[in-house]
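Fill in residues.
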């Protein structure tokens, strides 16, 4: 590829440029590029070295992000202040070589009560599911309130996860509290605390026989996805009265690494 070299071009806005113009239409900046005004570049720009001024990104559009990281390989040794992206997870290193996960959370929060049915089969906890990627490990968190005002049939509540995604493994802890009233669960409740390592329906409550019932359920865990697809939190109940998932209940989930081995981010040794 032939080139035409132009050195120290003075622009009207006081920019001094040492550059190489290529026959393919590219511009390779050499030693110095300084501008007192605005420097506009269309296309791909490669900068080597340090940027000694403020970088002001333009507004994004419906088709172009203001800042787009290309997937790459993480540094062999993390550096303080570094931000990296390996195609699965964003990482940031706040101090020393202590690289950490920057959570890219998919988040869903109910704005109004989501009313369930009286069916004894599994039903959607939020009315939605989330799409996850293959060969990826995710961390997730769920906090929900559930209420019902009718149906005194003795029953339990079970939690499960369904969808098209196939899982390598799943682990979560669950804390739940139930009371015989349709108001906020605070005191004088039946509580359950434990861990679960299956996506299948698992009972998370003691028997509830009151027509009016309220529950608080907190779940934190990780899931390793083999083949990507939908991932949907569900519950099963045998009451003759339907439960509602309370407004403000939420779920978030984010990738923390590749599946198939221990996820180790940071200075663990």
């Amino acid at each position: 590829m032939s080139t035409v070299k132009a050195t120290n071009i003075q622009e009207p806005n006081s920019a001094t440029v040492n550059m190489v113009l290529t026959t393919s239409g590219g511009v390779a900046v050499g030693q110095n590029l300084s501008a007192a005004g605005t420097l506009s570049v269309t296309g791909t720009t490669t900068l080597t070295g340090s940027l000694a001024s403020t970088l002001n990104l333009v507004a994004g559009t419906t088709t172009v992000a203001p800042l787009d990281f290309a997937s790459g390989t993480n540094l062999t040794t993390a550096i303080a202040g570094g931000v990296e992206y390996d195609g699965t997870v964003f990482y940031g290193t706040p101090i020393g070589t202590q690289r950490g996960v920057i959570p890219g959370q998919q988040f869903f929060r109910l704005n109004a009560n989501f009313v369930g049915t009286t069916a004894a089969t599994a039903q959607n906890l939020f009315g939605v599911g989330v799409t996850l990627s293959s060969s990826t490990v995710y961390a997730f968190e769920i906090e929900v309130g559930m209420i019902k005002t009718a149906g005194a049939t003795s029953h339990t509540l079970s939690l499960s996860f369904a969808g098209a995604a196939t899982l390598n493994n799943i682990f979560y802890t669950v804390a739940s509290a139930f009371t015989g009233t349709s108001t906020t669960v605070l005191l004088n409740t039946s509580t359950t605390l434990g861990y679960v390592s299956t996506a299948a329906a698992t009972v998370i409550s003691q028997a509830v026989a009151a027509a009016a019932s309220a529950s608080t359920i907190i779940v934190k865990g990780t899931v390793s996805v083999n083949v990507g697809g939908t991932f949907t939190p569900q519950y099963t109940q045998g009451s003759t009265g339907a439960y509602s998932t309370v407004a403000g209940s939420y779920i978030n989930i984010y990738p923390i690494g590749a599946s198939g081995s221990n996820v180790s981010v940071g200075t663990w040794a």
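Residues 1-12 have pLDDT under 50 and may be disordered.
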